[in-house]
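Tokens for chain A. Residues wanted.
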């Protein structure tokens, strides 16, 4: 009796573990992660940066997103609740993060995404965003570097235009070769 209960328990646990390991989607992003790198508080739209995650349906049934849980007010998601992704097709959703007012802070969020397949099985996958919001000192330094580079870039651009004009003038003053037919 004890052996049959133990065997049943082991079998049920094995099935549960196998079912959880089944993947129905694969993300384009390595390790399901997007690294924003170092960003400024003013980057993005209205102080919010975003990334579009792309995934592929690797199952044999259609899948769709049922829920994305950003976890805090600084992170948000955007996805089409009615979008069905057929086997082999790709889907997308957007994760955005508020950088305004977060100078000097790290970005590090794990966002659970819940999928459902055509058999009403539910699967969860995590995506991650990471990066660093530049400190005010870093932002000032970056702005100073950009301002210092602008005149140099402008001078290089003007010089390139001058060289191009000189080449055009040189071509227009070169004598044209006459063909043998024109000479006769």
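Reply:
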């Amino acid at each position: 009796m004890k052996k049959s209960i133990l065997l049943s328990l082991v079998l049920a646990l094995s099935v549960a573990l196998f079912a959880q390991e089944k993947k129905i989607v694969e993300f384009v992003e390595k390790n399901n992660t997007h690294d924003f790198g170092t960003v400024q508080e003013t980057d993005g739209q209205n102080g919010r940066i975003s990334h579009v995650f792309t995934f592929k349906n690797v199952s044999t049934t259609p899948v769709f997103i049922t829920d994305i849980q950003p976890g805090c007010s600084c992170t948000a998601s955007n996805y089409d609740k009615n979008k069905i992704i057929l086997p082999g097709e790709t889907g997308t959703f957007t994760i955005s993060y508020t950088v305004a007012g977060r100078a000097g802070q790290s970005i590090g969020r794990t966002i659970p995404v819940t999928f459902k397949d055509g058999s009403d099985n539910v699967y969860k996958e995590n995506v991650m965003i990471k990066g660093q919001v530049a400190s005010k000192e870093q932002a000032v330094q970056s702005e100073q570097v950009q301002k210092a580079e602008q005149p140099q870039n402008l001078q290089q651009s003007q010089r390139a235009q001058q060289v191009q004009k000189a080449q055009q003038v040189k071509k227009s003053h070169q004598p044209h070769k006459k063909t043998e037919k024109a000479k006769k």
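Residues 136-166 form one domain. Helices lie at 2-21, 136-173, 180-183.
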